[in-house]
Amino acid sequence: MDAPQETTRQLAPTQAGITEAARLLSAGALVAMPTETVYGLAGDARNPDAVAGIFAAKGRPQHNPLIVHLADLDQARALAEIPQRGLALARAFWPGPLTLVAPLRAGHGLAPAVTAGLNSVALRLPAHPVARALLTAFGGVVAAPSANPSGRISPTTPAHVLAGLGGRIAAVLDGGACAVGLESSIVGFDGEAALLLREGGISREALEAVLGAPLGRDASGKVTAPGQLAAHYAPRATLRLNVRAPRPSEVWIGFGPECEGAEFSLSQTGDLEEAAARLFAVLHAADAMGRPIAVAPVPERGLGAAINDRLRRAAAPRRA
Ligand code: TXA
Ligand code: MG
Description:
Layout: E1 9-11, H1 15-26, E2 31-33, E3 40-44, H2 48-58, E4 67-69, H3 73-79, H4 84-93, E5 98-103, E6 120-124, H5 129-138, E7 142-143, H6 158-165, E8 171-173, E9 185-190, E10 193-198, H7 204-211, E11 239-240, E12 251-254, E13 264-265, H8 272-287, E14 293-295, H9 304-315
Parallel strand pairs: 1-8, 2-8, 4-6, 5-9, 11-14, 12-13, 12-14
Antiparallel strand pairs: 2-3, 3-7, 4-7, 5-6, 9-10
Bound molecules: threonylcarbamoyladenylate (TXA) and magnesium ion (MG).
């Protein structure tokens, strides 16, 4: 990536800070905004220069489409044809950590790069009050991938954003630490059949309870959610999984009460929601120690499925 070029301002989550963030978005600038999942790198989704800036700031491949963030369901339905099952999920989980991928409507006005040229769009109504206030103040639609350099650990605090993108974006709007801590669950559709394209902040079990049917996996064999590439969320250090007895050189990340002596714990009590909320912050902190990382086993149920998904990608061999 190029050298940093601008001073990134820190905006407080006050009326003045939110108004300034909305003004920056209207001017085509990029603002990191808090959401309940992770911080997003927000830009005006209808402004091709702003959208190009998002890809440039993150070093993101052009073929990886962005999620569009909206203030209300009517805006979402104006952009895309959401199938009945998608509307059922939207009513149950929006605003919240759910993204729906649905066919674009004509006249959507999005910059083509937002959808990477696909005829579908990913939509989400975030629940974080500061995100909602910013979307309402801006009035438009906001494209926002996670506010980290492409392929690295997602940010759950303003400090994480500044460490990764400081000097490359206009501002970060401070909304504190993200409560959910994992990116949204992404659901797409094959006709009326719902497919889980990315495990995330809502468990498969909770989604299926609303659908009344099992979620399918994407069977096309294509990477339809390109963020699903094997190597992702990568710390600088190497990472080993399912480790009950770490090597002396390793930083150990524990889960549950039996991991005595671990430098970090995702949750002392073995609570999966707490572990999800802490996951990326613990990975950032462990990575800063400059030693190999070992992580204790995390059960696969509930949010554990998404936690293990992120850990497997963080441990996968790197391309570069
Ligand atoms: O929680 C979240 O979803 C966060 C916050 C900021 O909202 N955002 C986020 O964005 O995780 P990002 O860019 O890191 O991940 C977006 C994912 C990628 O895997 C992308 O490929 C997928 O959404 N995606 C976007 N548009 C798509 C589409 N039309 N079809 C399939 N996948 C799509
Ligand atoms: Mg991301």
